[in-house]
Design a protein that fits this description.
Elements (H helix, E strand, L loop, with lengths): L2 H5 E2 L4 E2 L1 H4 L4 E4 L7 H5 L2 H6 L1 E5 L4 E5 L3 E4 L20 H8 L4 H4 L13 H5 L11 H19 L10 H7 L4 H14 L3 H17 L7 H9 L9
Parallel strand pairs: 3-6
Antiparallel strand pairs: 1-2, 4-5
Helix pairs in contact: 10-12, 11-12
């Protein structure tokens, strides 16, 4: 994919995939296989929910409020740290592969989740057989209730993700214990201001999904788990 196909462009600029995915989902598979130059153009639409393309006489602004879902393998061969599988990649190759995704771009991604390889029995099992798992219908109900809470909080159609700094201070207050944990994580992992704000926004959403008025330590801890990334080659 070219930058123009992703964000838009041309002599007379036309919208790209980020605009075609407006109010939807943009899924980029094999994330590190995209050109780094192409990936870096995602930073503006992810931050501003719009993309501006400038030409000599005009500037064009297209909407781009989308959910980015990106997937990648743990390494080029796909077997790094996989149980019972041998990784054929050199350590430097793994490091080079992962560094294709820049820190500023990762800063704009709220949730970083490792998806383990499924065992055969798990792959072939019927989800309805596990009575302890939430059904999609129950998850949907929790999400809808959380969205109603947010609509009431902001008095308009708005989500926690869109909070400005003043709203963040008002609606994302945390107790002393949680603040100490966040400070410890910020210092240890050298978190940017953007990362800290996103941790608090995600914690606020986790609390909303749990039906909690306040952000508790467990909500902040879960949010941190989605943000802190250990260097696999260290």
């Amino acid at each position: 994919a070219s930058s123009a196909s992703l964000i838009g462009g041309g002599a007379v600029p036309r919208p790209g995939e980020v605009t075609l995915a407006h109010y939807g989902v943009l899924f980029l598979d094999e994330f590190p296989e995209f050109s780094r130059t192409v990936l870096e153009v995602l930073r503006q639409p992810l931050e501003d929910s719009q993309i501006t393309i400038t030409r000599s006489r005009y500037s064009y602004t297209f909407p781009s409020r989308f959910i980015l879902v990106a997937a990648q393998n743990p390494c080029p061969c796909g077997n790094y740290e996989q149980e019972n599988l041998e990784c054929t990649c050199h350590t430097s190759s793994v490091e080079r592969y992962r560094k294709k995704i820049s820190g500023p771009l990762l800063d704009r991604i709220d949730l970083d989740i490792n998806v383990p390889r499924l065992e055969y029995k798990d792959l072939m099992s019927n989800p309805s057989d596990d009575l302890e798992k939430e059904t999609s219908g129950k998850v949907q109900s929790r999400v809808e209730r959380a969205r109603l809470v947010q609509a009431e909080r902001f008095k308009k159609s708005k989500t926690n993700h869109e909070m400005d700094p003043d709203e963040l201070k008002t609606f994302c207050e945390i107790d002393e214990e949680s603040n100490s944990l966040l400070e410890l994580a910020a210092n240890k992992y050298q978190l940017s201001g953007r990362s800290i704000h996103r941790i608090l926004k995600v914690a606020r959403t986790i609390a909303d999904l749990a039906g909690s008025k306040d952000i508790d330590l467990q909500h902040l801890t879960e949010s941190l788990q989605y943000r802190l990334r250990e260097d696999p080659t260290a």
